[in-house]
């Protein structure tokens, strides 16, 4: 929480950013007046952001806001107004204003999600006796009288349980429950993370920790680690800084250096393009980088072969890329961000089956407090709420 003086300075900085982005003064004043809404005003909180902030009448304000939220949370004009207000007001949340503070906000992870959250979570569950069936999705549920009796995996394994939670992408859920498609309204964003290691800290990032680069063509955000220890891994003594970068615009927006979308660039071009968009020119990074760009888990730059095409057939494939030596490659992405918009009406109990529940980043629940898309806090709270719903069902059953 900020005291009055800190809040005043913060407001001035925000107004300054708007002004230097070309937003007219009257729109700046109007925008500041629109940042607080009574939390009981559900109609306003549930409307699309483009309507609430009058994007059609205020194009320069719209351009500024869209640059910020598309980079920050993969948002757009259909983002729910309440989610936007929650994001922009999180520094001074009080009961008298928009929302109350939750115990899941402002989580800081020491490394990529795969290393610092998913792997420890897997190890913990395995110790508890949880059985995992990797690389075999759910093909169907055997349902009788409004209740699921078992799940059938893609490898024809039969999994019996008292309750089933589908924490999977909507397309797979709709295959089992087609009517959910009528309630679904989401945006798919092929966002992905990369890591750089440096032997010296670039001058631009000496005092930085986390931030977004609003003017970056690929919607870059970053987090810096100023120690050798990164996700419980010790790198070489030569490494003084690790920069974890996320690109939220990979398919259409052309980069500033090579004038191509990320998904059409070679691996080397992606490395150079990201560094360029971060303001780290070649003469700055040539001698201080340790190794090359690392691709985060869930994406691969692959040679274009029949074997790879078949092995990664369930991943999203980018276009064919030709290297200078005429080698053929392509980008493959395993997953994507799935952001619910203002019109999404899928909830935990939308399967209309007594013991089948839905969880994940793309569903909405009236008990959620932190609803901002593309945030770990939202996923954690959603999972906690779903767990309580399932517990209550099992107790009653």
TrEMBL record:
GO terms for molecular function: FAD binding; oleate hydratase activity. It holds the Pfam family MCRA. Transmembrane segments: none annotated. GO terms for biological process: fatty acid metabolic process. InterPro entries: FAD/NAD-bd_sf, Oleate_hydratase. This is Amine oxidase domain-containing protein.
């Amino acid at each position: 929480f900020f005291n009055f003086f800190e809040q005043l300075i913060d407001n001035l900085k925000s107004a300054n950013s708007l002004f230097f982005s070309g937003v007219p003064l009257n729109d700046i004043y109007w925008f500041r007046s629109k940042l607080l809404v009574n939390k009981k005003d559900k109609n306003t909180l549930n409307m699309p952001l483009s309507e609430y902030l009058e994007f059609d009448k205020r194009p320069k304000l719209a351009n500024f806001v869209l640059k910020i939220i598309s980079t920050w949370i993969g948002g757009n004009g259909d983002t729910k107004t309440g989610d936007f207000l929650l994001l922009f007001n999180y520094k001074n949340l009080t009961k008298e204003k928009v929302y109350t503070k939750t115990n899941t906000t402002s989580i800081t992870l020491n490394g990529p999600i795969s290393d610092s959250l998913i792997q420890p979570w897997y190890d913990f569950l395995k110790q508890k006796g949880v059985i995992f069936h990797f690389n075999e999705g759910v093909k169907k549920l055997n349902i009788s009288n409004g209740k699921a009796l078992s799940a059938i995996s893609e490898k024809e394994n039969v999994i019996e349980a008292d309750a089933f939670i589908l924490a999977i992408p909507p397309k797979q859920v709709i295959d089992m429950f087609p009517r959910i498609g009528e309630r679904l309204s989401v945006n798919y964003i092929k966002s992905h993370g990369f890591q750089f290691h440096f032997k010296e800290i670039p001058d631009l990032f000496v005092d930085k920790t986390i931030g977004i680069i609003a003017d970056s063509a690929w919607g870059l955000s970053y987090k810096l680690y100023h120690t050798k220890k990164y996700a419980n891994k010790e790198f070489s003594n030569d490494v003084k800084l690790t920069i974890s970068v996320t690109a939220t615009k990979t398919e259409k927006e052309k980069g500033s250096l090579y004038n191509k979308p990320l998904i059409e660039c070679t691996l080397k071009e992606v490395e150079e393009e990201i560094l360029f968009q971060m303001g780290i020119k070649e003469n700055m990074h040539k001698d201080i980088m340790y190794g090359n760009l690392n691709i985060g888990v869930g994406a691969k730059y692959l040679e274009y072969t029949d074997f790879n095409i078949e092995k990664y057939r369930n991943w999203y494939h980018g276009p064919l890329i030709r290297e200078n030596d005429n080698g053929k490659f392509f980008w493959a992405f395993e997953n994507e961000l799935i952001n619910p918009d203002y019109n999404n009406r899928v909830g935990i109990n939308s399967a209309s089956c007594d013991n089948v529940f839905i969880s994940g980043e793309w569903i909405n629940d009236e008990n959620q407090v932190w609803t901002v898309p593309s945030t770990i806090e939202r996923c954690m709270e959603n999972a906690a709420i779903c767990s309580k719903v399932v517990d209550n069902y099992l107790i009653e059953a």
